[in-house]
Amino acid sequence: KAGVTQTPRYLIKTRGQQVTLSCSPISGHRSVSWYQQTPGQGLQFLFEYFSETQRNKGNFPGRFSGRQFSNSRSEMNVSTLELGDSALYLCASSLGHQGTDTQYFGPGTRLTVL
Amino acid sequence: AQSVTQLGSHVSVSEGALVLLRCNYSSSVPPYLFWYVQYPNQGLQLLLKYTSAATLVKGINGFEAEFKKSETSFHLTKPSAHMSDAAEYFCAVSDTGNTGKLIFGQGTTLQVKP
Fold it and tell me: Cα(B107)–Cα(A40) distance, rounded to whole angstroms?
């Protein structure tokens, strides 16, 4: 099976712009989660989607949003970019949304905000 | 609330030596615990997970971890380090409730010296 894929892998934006990141889960996986990774804050949970419904949301401002499509693919959007949004954004997929379900991570999208 | 603490942000060992990466958790319910590894410019790869079955969990690449409830620990070990083990290692716990959300420790960078 193909793994989790994320596009694009690298992105450079300027402050004030918006960006959309895409994640395709492993075939058959219905749950997608997003995480932000920075040197200072580490890995922080953004959102979790299952069957097109947001089940859980992390402590991020409303500029961060996401959605999941009927084929389980997911997108996250960041509006009005700030310098502090520069990070590696990781997507993970799992079969379900239980705590025991293993999350499989994609390679990430490296976002740089200038 | 769930939390994870990884003791030591950097660990250095010689090739062939024992690897010990420490993880302590805080959880109000029986936890589900995970160890992930991240190589440079890549996503996270699951090494092993504990979901309340055997307390000694064997993972990939010769790693194993032991769940000790009395010590609230889930330390990762490998008997003999290899140069290819140099990477960043993350311990994580599933959040409480019906969710796949992971709460990560700050990570430990493992350096392997020849």
Answer: 11
